[in-house]
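SAMPLE LOG
Freezer: B-3
Tube label: C17
Construct: single chain, 646 aa
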Amino acid sequence: MPRDHVESAESAASVQPAGSVETPFLELLARGASVDAYEQPVLLARAERRPPERVAALEHAQRLALRVRSEMEGRRRREAELSALFETAHDLAGLRDLDSVLRAIVQRARSLLGTDVAYLSLNDPDKGDTYMRVTEGSVAARFQQLRLGMGEGLGGLVAQTARPYVTDDYFKDDRFQHTRAIDTGVRDEGLVAILGVPLMLGHHVIGVLFAADRRARVFEREQIALLGSFAALAAAAIDTANLLTETRSALADLERANEIIRDRSGVIERASEVHDRLAELVLRGGGVHDVAAAVSRVLGGTVEFAEEGAAPGAALETSRAEGHAVRHGTDWIAAVTGGGELLGALVLRGHPDLDPVDQRTLERAAMVTSLLLLARRSASEAEQRVRGELLDDLLDARDRDPRLLRERAARLDADLDATHVVLAARLDGPAADADEEAAARRRLWSAASHLAATRHGLASARDGGTVLLLPLGGGDTATELARRTAGHLGTAVHGAVTVGASAPVENLTARRDTVATAYAEGLRCLEALRLLGRTGDGAAAHDFGFLGLLLAGDRDIAGFVDRTIGEVVAYDERRGTDLLRTLDAYFACAMSPVRTKDALHVHVNTVAQRLERVGRLLGEDWQRPDRVLEVQLALRLRRLSSPDRR
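STRUCTURE (predicted):
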């Protein structure tokens, strides 16, 4: 550890009062010190033979400070990722120099993934090979000038399968074809771990974006997804540059023919106008419908964004495969794709005669739309991860500061001091295979996360399903919330979703296990629903009668007794009657009024009148077998809870 860090930590610990154990760690947090620096206050206290209580307090403060540092580092990393994506989209919106944009993408990918080298290769259709286009961090000239045959090396594997590939040790990996030229270049560069993701235009791979380290390394899923996002932006930049090249070529042809220039001047102005408008929209954070409105004004027609299922299937697939807008009757369809995924389409209505420049305008708008959707998705997924992390912390009962938990929740527009219900949700129905089941679970988590965000709650994937923490509105019940949630999620994922709810929970941060206990109760209700064949439904513990005592986490005996025979108890207390005693005798005499009147020493008509009053208080179906069981159990529990009532 640097000497100045040690001295600073020693001086900070030595000048603080005995009770201020947090101060040196706060100073380390403020200074952005390394992890090693957090050991110094504890080591110094031990060296000075401070009291064990002081050392223990310092160790506790150290753990808290390291957790805060980890949270801050994770937040800064996610903010940096989103910032880099938006900055790259900004560069693309004002694209003038393709090399500059690609270099910026490679530089940002290397910086965010923390790799030694990042590089981008493009396919050369004329020569039938692929070549290095941009490198960052490379020191070997031979590596920077590599030209590879198609299908060779890890990049060839990525190009063939159109899927990301990663190797922890390049020279020990036999999944791809090794060649002398590639291995020599990689050895000169000293690379060991390599990650490659495809650059896609439609279904075609036009190149590969790489991130590599000179040591063994395991790339995490988030890092692979981030590099894929950069690859999508790089492919869009290349496509935009190609479109600009085509536009410039068309302008050159127009300049050679004055008559054509006059005829096409209005079209060129519209193309320039839409380019400026789309660039402005991206810069000021416009949405998909803003893009459609801007293109509608330029083309003099009606342009709408359509989801994948709402656009004509055949025309949409043709546009996706060809990478261009296609005509469909009197309409034009331009597929909106990103990273090989179909996101929807821009549909130009009632405009059958579309000239090539206007067609390019529609295609350009589709590309900008894909960038906006990808950026919004990245931001949404980041927020969903933050919400899930907070709920995971509450469920795992970690030693967290309640004040920090409430502050994190407040930033997500959630209030942990409000009354909440914990809901356990799972999909029902068989899946064709493991991939389909995993995809269904992802859809459930996505739908639950969206519902939690709109309801000021939290959601996280757990135990093969999803757990939600939702606030309970005034006049609402846990049962109603569970049933609405089951219906909402079932509609969103197009399948049956069963939801078990806990009883309402207040002051979530009062005890560390509050949320975990409520979640366990929700899981028990969920399993009870499935065992009873009520899949696709929602319920809480009190919906199961006396079985709710077994399902509830707090065993609310008084609540069960009150719900079952509370009206009879209140009647006896108000009127001084013996309805409870009559019920006890009635059940003890096998529900025979004649034997009951002998046990109570009253006339049989008196027994009948009392039982009729009980029926009016408990409902006409109170002698149904299942109700009789609950009433007898409530009577027994009331006697057991108050021995003087025997």
